[in-house]
Amino acid sequence: TVESGVRTFQLTAQKGITDFPGIGESETWGFNGAFLGPTLRATRGEKVAVQVDNELGRPTSVHWHGMHLPAAMDGGPHQMVEPGATWTPSWTVDQPASTLWYHPHPHGETEEHVYRGLAGMFILDDDASAAASLPNEYGVDDLPLIVQDKKFDDGELEYDRNGSEPGILGDTVLVNGTVGPYADVSTERVRLRLLNGSTARTYTFAFEDRPMTLIATDGGFLDAPLSQERVRLAPGERAEVVVTFEPGETVRLRSLKTDLGGIVVPQTAGGNDEFDVIEFRAAEKLTPSPEPSWPAAKDAAADEVHESEASVTREFVLNTREINGEEMDMSRIDEVAYVGDTEVWNVKSTQPIPHSFHIHDVQFRILSIDGKAPPPELAGPKDTIYLQPNVDYRLLMRFEDYADPAIPYMYHCHMLMHEDEGMMGQFVVI
Ligand code: C2O
Ligand code: CU
Ligand code: CU
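^ Copper oxidase, sequence as received from the core. Prediction below:
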């Protein structure tokens, strides 16, 4: 059904068979196919509707990670779609251009649903992104890279929650579901939309021999582009980078040893692993890319939130599988926020295992890390942040638009085994 003036999408969660070359054929889960899902794309101001059909044979849900939208449309554990059922959320996109994503959120089973392949990107555009001179031809010089590590056993994708921290670490890295991935490059500059779609692993992306220009984080553009040798992404985080290529060359994007900061045994968290992520093969003749220009900082001013407006401060302590000493309870509302309020959330992990903290509905700014201003790569809009143990993170956000006293949004660790095992809480906006 197509309502006029509404951008409609359709997603069917289903099981399928994926042939992983050199590994084998395996049962996998996907949206509209055997593995992962289509990239959805919409523009600020547009009304969108998604018809979600569940052919999985198990209850699931679809959450729009990073999206500002009514709680009833959020796709968290309170919006389950039963087997054979259809759920049709709709909302108006009203946030800056950004690289968001979608994935299931069934309480206790999110890790399994994402791990088996249910995930996709949701790209938002706006006037500022349209006016900027950046590589923007999807699939040509604007490439989505969904990075995930998997384990296989005798050719079959192996889902085995063995409880070791911080969850399943695979020895095979897939980009967009592909083993041994490469991309043909036909232009001087390419924009990569990196998504850490893994359930547990944190990556430190780096090219062998050149920096990347970081232009955007989870919720949109940085105030200014930033040359970076390395880009670290914890599960759920995204980054947009622009990379320059020379004619005829082959270069690899790698993941390097990750500084997990204060994690006692980094190897249990995969922190010492180094591996190739994807190879780029540049053509002998590259199409010149226009000199990049970024959206002016003033374009973002309307979305800015100021600390001086904050009227509420909340504390969140993450430890074992609890936040503030409580495991997730679907029937308990942990926090109540008011529409229009600006808040500061002080978030801290007090144990030496990795956690990444994610908040639904909002994009936040990091005010400080350990009392100091965040480094520039963490100064942009974020919805998920890696928490170094025993370090104070102060986050600033404003709750807007959608009051609903009955249906909560979630905040949780995005290491999905932790989330499933209870490291999640619920807030309503009223
Ligand atoms: Cu990406 Cu609550 O999740
Ligand atoms: Cu989310
Ligand atoms: Cu965690």
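Residues 63, 65, 358, 360 surround copper (II) ion (ligand 2) (CB under 6 Å).
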